[in-house]
Amino acid sequence: MSDTRRPEPPQPKQEQSPPGFTPSMDPPPDHGEQSYRGNGRLEGKVALITGGDSGIGRAVAIAFAREGADIAIAYLREHRDADDTARLIEEAGRKALTIPGDISEQAHSIAVVEKVVGELGGIDILVNNAAFQRTYADIADITAEEWDTTFRTNIYAPFYLSKAAIPHMKPGASIINTTSIQSKQPSPHLLAYASTKGAMLNFTAGLSAMVADKGIRVNAVAPGPIWTPLIPSTMPQEKVENFGKQTALGRAGQPAELAGAYVLLASELGSYMTGAVIPVTGGEIMI
Fold it and tell me: Less Cβ crowding at N or C end of the chain, within 10 Å?
């Protein structure tokens, strides 16, 4: 029997302008709106989630809020998606803070952390999740400006945010980076994106050792193909149609299916985990 929350390819043909918009996706992604049940694992914590307006970030925001955390979501300009996520956080009885702007700019990243600390009283969990990607068949088509944008969004911003957040973090705090199966199995058409996700693996490992004596844990989640607005807004229609078909499970993952990994790493359930990477790939093996 098929699960309507986890549809299998083919997806209907569709195309959006980057960075994409959740209500325009067909089928709509499942962020755990109806399914996630909290257990108080993050009671009283404050979490900052980049890219928290949609996709994986929205699923993590819902889960963290239902586990008892107040949530700040940093996002670029997708105001309607951000407002929808904030509503879901508030429906869970938690505070929601939305902060638009470009985290690839260091000054803005610093300002985001200062705003979270000032309005929510601290920062216990940082989820470096926001990412930029585009698809190209030839390296000649990738401009230096786009290469720079990809690295600034996907690896500079986590550096800026982590550097700004760590002085405010107490022992037991957690930094969780979103890497990708692309870090180990790079697709040629995602050359820039995959390169940044490889860098994220090393950033996670190095930073985890650097801050271990502060009692701060640093880990990563490595998603496989996940059905988020990034897909119809950055990939050709023929790839969107069969997105996720190559996995052992034969389908794309839903954002809700990653939430548990982030809760594990953010909470006392993962208290002896640092420098780790959790693959959530639908059966694709990270070698």
Answer: N
Catalytic site positions: 193
CATH class of 39-280: alpha beta
Q: Which residues contact 80 (CB under 8 A, 6 or more apart)?
A: 21, 23
Rounded-to-integer distance, Cα 240 and Cα 52, Å? 22
Write down the H helix ranges in the chain. Answer: 55-66, 79-91, 106-120, 144-151, 157-165, 191-211, 230-234, 237-241, 259-266
**Dihedral angle sign, alpha carbons of residues 151, 102, 266, 210:** positive
**For the chain, what are the domain ranges?**
39-280
Query: pTM of the prediction?
Result: 0.93
Using CA atoms, how far apart are residues 42 and 268, in angstroms rounded to an integer?
Answer: 9
Question: Tens digit of pLDDT per residue, the chain (287 long)?
Answer: 445 568 788 888 888 887 777 878 888 899 999 999 999 999 999 999 999 999 999 999 999 999 999 999 999 998 999 999 999 999 999 999 999 999 999 999 999 999 999 999 999 999 999 999 999 999 999 999 999 999 999 999 999 999 999 999 999 999 999 999 999 999 999 999 999 999 999 999 999 999 999 999 999 999 998 988 778 887 777 788 888 888 989 998 999 999 999 999 999 999 999 999 999 999 998 87
